[in-house]
Give the backbone structure.
Amino acid sequence: MKPSIPKGTRDFSPIEVANRSYIMNAIKMAFETFGFQPIETPSFENSATLMGKYGEEGDRLIFKILNSGDYLAKAEEIVLSKKDSLKLTSQISEKALRYDLTVPFARYVVQHQNEITFPFKRYQIQPVWRADRPQRGRFREFVQCDADVVGSPSLWQEVDFIQLYDTVFTKLGLVGTLIKINNRKILSGIAEVIGAQDKLIDFTVALDKLDKIGKEGVVTEMLSKGITNEAIEKVQPLFDFSGSNSEKLSSLHSMLETSEEGIKGVEELRFVIDTIAQLGLETASLEVDVTLARGLNYYTGAIFEVAAPKSVKMGSIGGGGRYDDLTGIFGLKEVSGVGVSFGLDRIYLVLEELGLFKTVDLPTPKVIFLNFDATSDIMKMKALKELRKQGVKSELYPDLGTSNKQQKRQWKYVASREIAFVVSEISNDMYTLKNMGTGEQEACDLRALIEKLK
Amino acid sequence: MKPSIPKGTRDFSPIEVANRSYIMNAIKMAFETFGFQPIETPSFENSATLMGKYGEEGDRLIFKILNSGDYLAKAEEIVLSKKDSLKLTSQISEKALRYDLTVPFARYVVQHQNEITFPFKRYQIQPVWRADRPQRGRFREFVQCDADVVGSPSLWQEVDFIQLYDTVFTKLGLVGTLIKINNRKILSGIAEVIGAQDKLIDFTVALDKLDKIGKEGVVTEMLSKGITNEAIEKVQPLFDFSGSNSEKLSSLHSMLETSEEGIKGVEELRFVIDTIAQLGLETASLEVDVTLARGLNYYTGAIFEVAAPKSVKMGSIGGGGRYDDLTGIFGLKEVSGVGVSFGLDRIYLVLEELGLFKTVDLPTPKVIFLNFDATSDIMKMKALKELRKQGVKSELYPDLGTSNKQQKRQWKYVASREIAFVVSEISNDMYTLKNMGTGEQEACDLRALIEKLK
């Protein structure tokens, strides 16, 4: 029996855990600096809380937990005999693993609305699970780092979130991220102008391919999806959509002037863009991208997505937006929310590829007491006790080694764990301390030993 | 639809997350100070990794994950028609949620044995899930904090772990914990002496009731379980098992002198007890308890359990022991391991009951900019940007409030979040800063503002 783990999941070694903590701490510190407070929700929710919130595809990708005990007792015979998996699921499973942090957060807000002061700024850093096909940057268990505000329609939040992205990526040394921004109302305006609400996704998907297949290719695809020539004519400016953000905004403004909602979207976007222009960003840039449509189902205002620096091939490393009525699904109406998410696992891959982890410290002991001679054991343990009290990471090699071979193994252990100092010998109450970097060696008493190491 | 969460799971509010982090950090720091390195394993494992490792009861309590897609396709018709839940499980579920951290760790060690330097000292702080009946201190999702060493039979580890418990509980201000210690070999010795290997658990369970039901009650229970009068006679000393640890050890030594294994257990225990006596403990005490038998199935040497201070009613808040062949189940033979676990959720309840959380800081902003006047918005945002760069937790009240009522709401928000400083007004480039504790107010320029707050 060769042990293994499920597809799409990972073990993390000490160095990987340290690197992941480094990223999470940077994000956590930034969240708190921006005034967000942490909450946590259970790993599994009642299925009713999650099902139907992420579309049909989402429902399929949610991991369901089998009921305990004699779970078939309540199952209908007809469903069993027909082997109807879809129908049986709700009869034998009442719980499911968290699919994202947004829906559980909405559930939390509604459930705890009487304990919460609004606007409520919360962050949440927890794993989520999706039965997706694993590939580079896509796992079945991965960590999301979300910050959201509910209870305020103010566009200052959008400004804050863009600065938050810039702050985190700057802190991680990740220069050159691209924050793409769009507004759902602009997309609605486009749909209005082209007279085809239901073709909006086909439209943005086709438009997104402009770089790859050129204007002609995009038009062909749009026509094939049933978008009329006349409609395409009306949004001509989108086919030469370049220049500065303010040029793009002007172009959108004239294109959408017949759509009240479209114009509102342009104005919202303009406010955010102009404010960020005045405040400046450290390392990120901000770019209007009208093809950005992520999860159209719940965004109602701003839509964000962050791309890694161009030199790295990786899907988005963050995203988010405004949803005017997320808590409505749980019965609390008209509470506007806006939030962003950081994809820890992808950020990890990007930092690794760019060699940006070099500064992370492994939690390795600073000093080890080798074990060549049992007579001084108590002296070693007493020294260890003092060192640890002072917070010095330290340990005793546990097994006594009297032969050459055994002692070699202890030195090998020191090297492999990259331990900086070694106490190899103790005599007359003096500890022989060796600096493994320089090779220097000196004898010192307990007090001097602690002074040197703390 | 009233939102709720599954039985035995919990939401954690900001203050609860902060308190939990405080405990986890204390444990993590102690683990690292003692030379342990972190690893993490997936939340779910292949069922084959977990099933059969925790006894029949354990198998029942493991949460199973339903396969994705048309999971019934592979199910046998006969099993479905018989509604045989037990048999069907393995046909429709291949993965299960982690039940503890020890078995996944054993799996990790075997799977990664070529990347690991032994002795391998790892710690792991992650949630585990059990479909247990929820009650006070028992949840279906809870966090375990484990430290283990594999690859060394040295008793110094046992000494280290007792000191580790003492260090953590001292740091948390939890005075008066009781570390109970036993040794599996002593239990085997007792079984040998009473001539009833198979009655060992009945014996320890009965003996454990000595305080409650008295000697006579215990003897009656033992007899009812088929333990002979003659056997009971041989272990008379256990019925007056009091006095110091060394008195207990002497008594065990004479009682078990016919059992080689029993004597070995006494000697091991004596080494640990004597060494700890020489080193001293800060706030915990160490006590030999021969009724301690926790999970007999894999412990082979020392057995630990920690009880909260007597004033608090709570099950054990930690436990562990030595297992000589844990990795054997995954094919790596003769690797000795020893480890302990801290029960985060119970430690939380104990600290809460004793009022020991008072020092924990909530991640709340230090300063907020109120929003009474839109004209100075950019000045506020610029100040915020600088403050945050200096790491000062700070935010803007997002919604403009011009009416009395709206402004009152902003002050209420300040009070409810316990924010220490407020900038309520800006004029002529001067910020009016109010100290909410003293009520003092002063006008300062941006530089002075940052100096005061950072």
